[in-house]
Amino acid sequence: MGAHVSAAGGLYKAVGRAQELEAEAIQIFGAAPQMWRRKQHSEEEIARFREAAADARLGPVFIHAVYLINLASPNPELLEKSVDALTAELRLGSQIGAAGVIVHVGSHMGAGFEPQLPQMVDAMRRCLDDSPEDILLCLENNAGAGRSVGSTFEELSAMVGGAASERVRLCLDTCHLHAAGYDVSTERGLREVVAAYRAEFSDDQLAAVHANDSKTELGSGKDRHENLGHGSIGLPAFRRMVRNRLLRRAAWLLEVPGYETDGPGRPDVEMLRALRDESELPAAPPLETGV
Questions:
Q1: Which one, out of 6, 114, 204, 249, has a CA that is 20 to 30 A from the CA of 259?
Q2: pLDDT at 46 over 60
Q3: For residue 246, what are the domain limits?
Q4: 54 lies in a domain?
């Protein structure tokens, strides 16, 4: 159980922030998420991160790839930038000892999923071929908005199957599932979602879960994360999910707004861990105005 934490000021500082949250696993950005230009991390900084993570017994670690990546783009220039960026993320992940890189595959921009599928598969293979074999590529499901790809298990399965690599795994975002019409908020709905997953994938293909409640209703197609218990999924649903035989295999990573509008905090991690451990739920701080 863990969270996305900031690596501002140096990768190694993410470890200290994780310890403050009492997180058992973390996700970080390896580069500014809205920029193509990458920061070059020195060997000293990378070694410092690895040492700090080992001392803290922290793991697994995941990198979330930059948001600009679009392997489905019909624009050749954007595609090449995306392949270069994702390859760089995978190489950095290997250097710091991360388990995997989590990526949104992108949007077909009106070209259609099926016509762009061969391109996406080829792009993933290029990234895998040009990066070390000890790092996973984890495809994250989308919320179903517009022309995004990977919002259904069938589309994800086509991409994973096309790549034909044991290094390609999945990251399921609970908010995105709900927004895309997969009802994880009810006991029956969760059983159906797990059955739909298993119709396409094996259990060991799930590497991570992004644990986020949803500000919007089932099937909204909108990616709007909410703190656990404050959205349309609800705490009872998360209690069921963290105990589910499939989902509990994965690393759980919070990407919620938090109670001070700056991302997941210690109360969020404590809540998630209490749901897993069947212990008394901590009292959540009041949401600040406007959150």
A1: 249
A2: yes
A3: 2-277
A4: yes
- The model's confidence at residue 262, banded by pLDDT at 50, 70 and 90, is confident
Look up the CATH number of the domain holding residue 205: 3.20.20.150
**Looking at residues 170-194, what average pLDDT do you find?**
98
Query: Before 60, cis peptide (omega within 30)?
Result: yes
Distance CA 234, CA 236 (A): 6
How many domains does the chain fold into? 1
Q: What is the number of residues in the chain?
A: 291
**CA distances in angstroms from 52 to 58, 97, 99, 135, 276, listed in the order given:** 9, 12, 16, 19, 26
How many Å apart are CA 166 and CA 213, to the nearest integer? Answer: 30
290 in a structural domain: no
- Calculate mean pLDDT across residues 113-133: 98
Count of C-beta atoms within a 10 Å radius of residue 283: 9
Is 35 inside any structural domain? yes
DSSP H stretches of helix in the chain = 13-21, 43-55, 76-96, 113-129, 153-163, 174-179, 187-198, 235-243, 266-277
pTM above the 0.90 mark? yes
**Dihedral sign computed on CA atoms, order 117, 122, 126, 129:** positive
For residues 147 and 107, is the Cβ–Cβ distance under 8 A? Answer: yes
